[in-house]
Amino acid sequence: MNPELQVQPRLLTLEGGEGAGKSTVLAALRDALLADGQDVVCTREPGGTPLAERIRELLLGVGNEPMDAHAELLLMFAARAQHVVQVIRPALVRGAWVVCDRFTDSSYAYQGAARGLDMGLIAELERHAVGVTPGLTLLLDLDVTRARERTRGRDLLGEAMPDRIESERDAFFERVRAGFRERAAREPQRIRVLDAGQSLEQVAADALLALADYRRRLA
Ligand code: Z5A
Asked: Whose Cα sits closest to atom 40 in ligand 1?
């Protein structure tokens, strides 16, 4: 049997490369929905449950043996399967909005477009182990050099050290970016591309406009 993906109108996801401003945009979307009296669950991937957060540590930790690309893909989906069953589906069933920092599009971009794994395999995993797809995805699109400058600034401030995936070379992130943009071109109804090279305030304002437009279309 080949299960179908269910579009979940109240599942909103944020995608993009590092340093694109997803954290700020997530907070802006959450605040707008809360101000409108909505029930909102904010979460992230990989992670979002205690078990999935432990898988995240395995995925992003540095200093382990080199991770095989298929092992990486399967761990991403192991974390996602757990996250969907424990957090995302229950929230959607009770009528909440779920705003998720990264979701399956990241697997297509990072493990598919950048690592070169089979997109058909990713689609199979998505159908069997995830089963849901967002109603709206905001892709925060940013030039790789700009992204590097932003995260370097954060590293210099001692806020964070590059994790295993952040330590990849620029060519990898160019493929990630191209992978996201290609998905957006194929699914323009679901994936809205925002220019993340603007000020954080402007990116957040664009995201709020996209959400308002989406909610009008849903109503
Ligand atoms: N991954 C995968 O490979 N496959 C998958 O299926 C999934 C994930 C789900 C998860 O890390 C890693 O896992 C990620 C993809 C991979 N690896 N990479 N690279 P994450 O999601 O925790 O990491 P991230 O998305 O890379 O986090 P980030 O760098 O924190 O991105 P962000 O949330 O978009 O950025 P931010 O924290 O909002 O901003 C970063 C800094 O830039 C901060 O100092 C901001 O103040 C600054 N910033 C952001 N926007 C602006 C603007 N517009 N102007 C000026 N400064 C800005």
From this structure: 19
Q: Which CATH class is domain 8-218?
A: alpha beta
Calculate how far, in angstroms, residue 1's C-alpha sits from the geometric centre of ligand 1: 37
**Quick one: which H or E segment has residue 106?**
helix 104-106
What are 70-123's pLDDT values in tens digits?
Answer: 999 999 999 999 999 999 999 999 999 999 999 999 999 999 999 999 999 999
CA of 15 to the centre of ligand 1 (A): 9
The residue behind tokens 């930790």 is 61
Indicate the top mutation candidate among 13, 14, 15, 23 to test ligand 1's pocket, ranked by most ligand atoms within 8 A of CB: 23
Q: What pTM does this model have? A: 0.96
Residue type (1 letter), 173: F
Q: Is 156 a residue whose pLDDT tops 80? A: no
Rounded Cα distance, 98 and 191, in Å: 16
What is the model's pLDDT at position 151? 84
